[in-house]
């Protein structure tokens, strides 16, 4: 489509008064002399949350939310970390910064930057759906809002989380009744703990893969209540019958590995926003796909952006182009920053290579018809 291919999304030209600009190292606040979730090593980095595309090794000083300190340090031990309580203000070079809940994962924050009467907010990743493992998203009024757009297409609409977890519970209950283990693949940081905190722990024992346990510990250290969860590796081969009634939470990388053999007969499922796409589910080759995301869906992105009152919106990652176009149609000033968010191993882990190609091309200049055709019937009815 010609109109889309000529659409210039990357050229967000900077005005001298801009509080955040794009630099090769990452998003930068010139007045405050700090970076936001930089992808190259810098002197001072403000980190919105501990996912690996936003929180990287190698910076000299880190500033992050106190709520997220345990998870951040479990991923990046020994960093020089200063923390702020949500809402607490800090002066950086004459610029007032504060962190506000983003509802994405434990400790996730939006960064509010105020200088000379202007207010910008950088969202990091966020969602509006309730999540017992982290503080709820808090709308912050601002002039300019820097937003993610991971699921920024109208096809992405989530069911209420309770509906999804009811589905997980009945899948698990059914498997347990058949004497079959239930193996649920999901990201080890954030999604796994949200699942653990939300399923009905009365159905049977819960186990996790070794990659999930350190994050569980960090969540518990931060005061998040999780049900009792044992490590799969604690069970001797002679006792493996215990798995027949169990829910086993594992990272996507465990799929297809020899680690699964110990469970004997099992049903597997995958929990991700990408499960909205039939193609993603098919390529995953799992019995069930649960559409569960820690990102805002299309309506929630719109709600969140509207709630900021911002007249200018800058989109960082995901389906950038459709979101920028939609924002301009709403009469807002909209543009994009080219970033390296969204292509981390955590998120890539959940996608097949094809899905990644589809996702990044949609963020570029191609049309979205391919994804629309991938939509399954249930999605278009919801
Ligand atoms: Zn994230
Ligand atoms: Zn991200």
From TrEMBL:
Keywords noted in UniProt: Ligase
Q: Where is the composition biased (Basic and acidic residues)?
A: 371-382
Provide any one GO MF term from the record: RNA endonuclease activity
Which InterPro entries does this one have?
MBL, RibonucZ/Hydroxyglut_hydro, Xnuc_lig_assoc
For the region Disordered, give the residue spans.
Answer: 362-382
Q: Does the keyword Ligase apply?
A: yes
Q: Provide the leader sequence positions.
A: none
Protein origin, superkingdom: Bacteria
Would you tell me the protein name for this molecule?
Answer: DNA ligase-associated DEXH box helicase
Q: Which organism is it from?
A: Paraburkholderia rhynchosiae
Its lineage opens with: Bacteria, Pseudomonadati, Pseudomonadota, Betaproteobacteria, Burkholderiales
